[in-house]
Amino acid sequence: MNCCNEYGECKQGNGCPARCTPLNQLCGASEVPQPTHTGERQDEPLSTWEAIFLYGAIAISGISTLLVGAGTLGWLYFKHWS
After folding, report:
1. pLDDT value at position 79?
2. Rounded distance between C-alpha atoms, residue 29 and residue 67, angstroms
3. Integer distance in angstroms from the first to the last C-alpha of the chain?
4. Distance CA 31, CA 17 (A)
5. Which of 2, 19, 25, 63 is the most exposed place for a label (fewest CB within 10 A)?
6. How many Cβ atoms sit within 10 Å of the Cβ of residue 41?
7. What pLDDT, on the 0 to 100 scale, is given for residue 45?
8. Residue 35 class from Cβ within 10 Å (0-12 exposed, 13-18 middle, 19+ buried)?
9. pLDDT, position 14
10. Measured between alpha carbons, how far is 14 from 21 in angstroms, rounded to an integer?
11. pLDDT value, residue 58
């Protein structure tokens, strides 16, 4: 059944089956897909080497960010403010 025109606008009004949404009771509860997951994470914990690599990369990126910021401020201070 095609109740929409070529622009996707419904021609039959609010009772058109193409307008059904999961919140609309006209579609029926059997047509609404039900979630199959419980919402809990099923990931395995990190191994020791994975944790060392991950936290090492985070630490290196944080220290690098601080050094670049301090270098920028030092350059600005000695170049323009002193």
Report:
1. 86
2. 58
3. 77
4. 12
5. 2
6. 7
7. 86
8. exposed
9. 62
10. 12
11. 97
CB 32 within 8 A of CB 21: no
pLDDT (0 to 100) of residue 17: 61
Note the pLDDT tens digit of each residue in 23-66.
Answer: 544 454 445 556 666 667 677 888 999 999 999 999 999 999 99
Q: For the chain, what's the residue count?
A: 82
**Which one-letter amino acid corresponds to residue 12?**
Q
* Share in percent of the chain as helix, strand, coil (round to 5): 55, 0, 40
The answer to whether 63 and 56 are in contact (CB under 8 A) is: no
What is the secondary structure of 18-50 as a DSSP string?
A: GG--TT-GGG-GGGSPPP---S---PPPPPHHH
3-7, 56-60, 66-70, 78-82, range with the lowest pLDDT: 3-7
